[in-house]
């Protein structure tokens, strides 16, 4: 019983007085104690001094700020591909897919919190892999996680280049705009803690929401999408149910999965919360908000643009509104990339310095490791974005190959790992939850295999047809 108590205290960032000594380090503290406490002992970060400035405060994130970060890690790029997914699937299947994936991912997010409570030493996906599968699991899952968040952050560079091209009428090479995006995101990503970076979540959220609201109003009042042919010989078609090919349908589903692919970042969020027990509350608020936004934006934009929907969707409402929408969205696109590149750099940073005094102290080694990690992930993300320079296909590939494993299969297995020997084993609720997680696990593998196949086929066809620019192309990617 004593050991369980100590683990709980470590997990919650057991606070002790700065002058405590090794003899009483494991003594329980009275939660009603009013004495000023300024040292946090954390299972990941070790001892963090909150007052003397010698260490960043990695445990200063409240649940409201956590909710905002959870929403912003998802809403940036994903929402811009959802109307096109509805165009492929149709209204009814598209809405049902959004709701189904929302339920699955919300469960996965919840499991992240419970797993962290049971294993306070966890900070990233690689830690989960080590607990369940040993060193090999740590490296394999860690690599998949790192590739997913870096690729997603890199996709923001692509969207930033699209935005600049739209605003400036392709004033310079698209690669130059992507480089500018990478530099801006890199500078913002170098802010060391999620607590300090959380205000950017508000900026990004307002930015993206204002852009999509302007888009919806513009489409509703202009009456003609930008991709509609000249003249009057055109008509918007919106269908309740469509008949897509298997490749088209699975790619659309994977775009929706990508829209919810913020789950791996939630390990970092719960790991830097003041009170990890509030994580479930933040997830419920965040996922309710994000799903509501997704449903409204996808349905309204598809209703008014129909088959003439652009991707990213911000280019759907005419030349002038296209500039306005991308101008409003630019901060949000940069913030979305910032959050993903920050957690990617934090993963490398923690792996390199874990169990050393440099991890939570402002030493030269600390700064070299941190800024070096930021430069590395931004460089790799830029290369990925320029190698696959078309928006929908990049989102679909990330959603299929990486997001399924990190956001569905892994969390299902995490729940089974923690509950296979549960005292409630054999009860009706346990049996139902076990069956549900097995179903999610199998479904995730199907979506991964089928979705990757569909994405590769589509990317190959696009390169062959010449309908899209080549890798590292200077061509206008906003038209």
TrEMBL record:
Q: Which GO terms describe its cellular component?
A: membrane
Q: Where is the composition biased (Polar residues)?
A: 1-23
User: What are the Amino acid transporter transmembrane domain coordinates in residue numbering?
Assistant: 60-456
What Pfam families does UniProt report for this protein, alphabetically? Answer: Aa_trans (PF01490)
Q: Which superkingdom? A: Eukaryota
Show the stretches that span the lipid bilayer.
84-107, 140-168, 174-192, 199-219, 249-271, 283-306, 326-348, 368-388, 394-417, 429-453
Q: Name one GO molecular function term.
A: L-amino acid transmembrane transporter activity
Q: How does it sit in the membrane?
A: Multi-pass membrane protein
Alphabetically sorted, this entry's keywords are: Membrane, Transmembrane, Transmembrane helix
Sequence segments annotated as region (Disordered) = 1-36
Task: Please state where this protein is localized.
Answer: Membrane
Gene3D superfamilies in the cross-refs:
Amino acid/polyamine transporter I
Spell out the family assignment given in the record's similarity comment: Belongs to the amino acid/polyamine transporter 2 family.
Mind telling me what this protein is named?
Amino acid transporter transmembrane domain-containing protein
Query: Which source organism?
Result: Kwoniella pini CBS 10737
